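Project outcomes to date are best conveyed with an example. Our students and postdoctoral researchers have been running inverse folding experiments weekly, and each run begins with a structure described purely in tokens. The record below, which covers 136 residues, was selected by the lab manager from last quarter's runs and is presented without edits.
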């Protein structure tokens, strides 16, 4: 397992993506799946940056693990910000006209739909969110 401890700042997003992509490339992840994972990682990290510590600043610990047997990429985000379970947030009504949709929630919905698993737990003051994607 590889870990990256990083300030939860938007300017650090490229470092987070590069960190995850290094693990994906080392395990021959197809480009289509890599793009899906990159979008999910971006959404989760940006949410931490925008909402976890507001108005203060904090950090995030991101881990990348590869399950050889299942051929799964396992990415975990750990922060000590405000407790928030994205797996419990209601899905937006994507069939409603844009003018009637509530703001927010679409990014988390995309992550839920594009990843094979999205797991959350709050433990000892830490938000721990894990996304899992089979890479073939």
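After processing, the design step wrote out the following sequence:
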């Amino acid at each position: 397992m590889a870990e990256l401890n990083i300030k939860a700042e938007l300017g650090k997003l490229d470092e987070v993506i590069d960190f995850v992509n290094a693990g994906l490339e080392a395990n021959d992840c197809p480009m289509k799946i890599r793009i899906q994972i990159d979008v999910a990682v971006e959404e989760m990290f940006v949410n931490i940056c925008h909402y976890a510590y507001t108005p203060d600043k904090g950090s995030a610990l991101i881990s990348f693990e590869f399950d050889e047997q299942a051929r799964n990429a396992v990415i975990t985000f750990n922060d000590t910000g405000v407790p928030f379970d994205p797996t419990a947030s209601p899905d937006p009504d994507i069939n409603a006209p844009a003018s009637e949709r509530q703001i927010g929630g679409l990014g988390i919905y995309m992550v839920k739909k594009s990843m094979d698993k999205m797991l959350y737990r709050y433990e000892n003051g830490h938000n721990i969110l894990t996304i899992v994607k089979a890479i073939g």
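The radius of gyration is 15 Å. The chain has three helices and five strands. The training component of this project remains on track.
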